[in-house]
Write a structure and sequence with these properties.
The complex is a heterodimer of chains A (about 100) and B (about 180). Chain A is mainly alpha-helical. In chain A, about 85% of the residues lie in helices and about 0% in strands. The longest helix of chain A is centred in the middle third of the chain and has 38 residues. Chain B has a single domain, classed as PhyR, sigma-like (SL) domain (Butyryl-CoA Dehydrogenase, subunit A, domain 3, Up-down Bundle). In chain B, helix 2 packs across helix 4 and helix 4 crosses helix 7. Chain B is globular and about 55 Å long. The N and C termini of chain B lie far apart (about 50 Å). The chains are: A mainly alpha (about 100), B mainly alpha (about 180).
Chain lengths: ~100, ~180
């Protein structure tokens, strides 16, 4: 009797239906595409900013030197803060989880 | 049917979306059923958590080391997503007004799934998880250990206690 009960319970606990739903797959793929697109946009914006900054500094060497002077005269705390912020942004940008 | 490792390699090396869609198609049934049991029949929530779990699978695929099967690894991620959801939303599952007579009737497979999902409400989360992974998903105790991080002895006692509770519920109805 106990064995009967146990086998009844075991059979009841099985997965009886196979859940196959193309809509479910499509939803996930659409979410993936949307997050990839968003990431690509942010990357492009960051790249454009970096390029424009580089070009500007290349054509204005005196300004670049002034910028370096400003950096060297900044307090170490401020320098560390800027560096950590920049590193954090790059890590966030390159991470797969954002 | 293409081997899982080949599909995973394609996703990691070239971001092949078709390969990932094939993986989802292959494992969506097991993961969604598992989560439906954990949520005790809250199918909409289970499907939402399953979607979140598959997104995490995609994001973390490069950290899959192959020390367990892909199925076990995906179940582990789904279980973690469920725990995260549970932290945010607390449900006090109560088994009220459950008609046990339906267990004796000849019912369709889909109804059997609905019945057992509701019956899960009389188990606590750990018992529900261990019973589903062991009996329904057919995992070994070692694999359940990978998914839940419970010690082996604890897993065995959760399964036995859970089965006993379910049997008592069914037998109480009969007497």
């Amino acid at each position: 009797m106990k064995n009967n009960d146990e086998s009844f319970l075991t059979s009841l606990l099985q997965y009886h239906t196979r859940l196959i739903d193309q809509q479910f797959v499509d939803n996930i793929m659409n979410n993936l595409k949307a997050s990839n697109k968003f990431r690509l946009r942010i990357m492009i914006i960051a790249l454009l900013l970096a390029c424009s900054l580089t070009v500007t500094l290349l054509f204005n060497m005196s300004e670049e030197l002034a910028f370096l002077n400003t950096l060297s005269s900044m307090s170490p705390y401020m320098m560390t803060f800027c560096l950590i912020t920049a590193l954090g942004f790059v890590t966030w940008l390159t991470s797969d989880n954002f | 049917m293409v081997d899982d490792n080949i599909l995973i390699a394609r996703v990691i090396s070239s971001g092949d979306q078709h390969a990932f869609a094939t993986l989802i198609r292959k494992y969506q049934g097991a993961i969604r059923q598992f989560l439906r049991r954990l949520t005790a029949g809250d199918q909409a929530t289970a499907d939402d958590i399953a979607q979140e779990a598959f997104l995490r699978v995609y994001q973390n695929l490069d950290s899959f080391l192959g020390t367990s099967t892909f199925s076990t690894w995906a179940h582990k991620i789904a279980y973690n997503c469920f725990l995260k959801y549970k932290q945010k939303v607390y449900h006090q599952y109560e088994i009220e007004g459950f008609d046990f007579s339906v267990l004796e009737a000849q019912v369709e497979d889909i109804e059997k799934d609905l019945i057992i999902e509701r019956l899960m409400k009389c188990l606590d989360l750990a018992e529900r998880t261990c019973i589903t992974l062991s009996v329904s998903a057919g995992m070994s105790h070692q694999e359940i250990c990978v998914v839940t991080k419970f010690p082996l002895g604890t897993i065995k006692s959760h399964i036995n206690r859970g089965k006993q509770k379910l049997m008592d519920k069914v037998n109480n109805h009969k007497t």
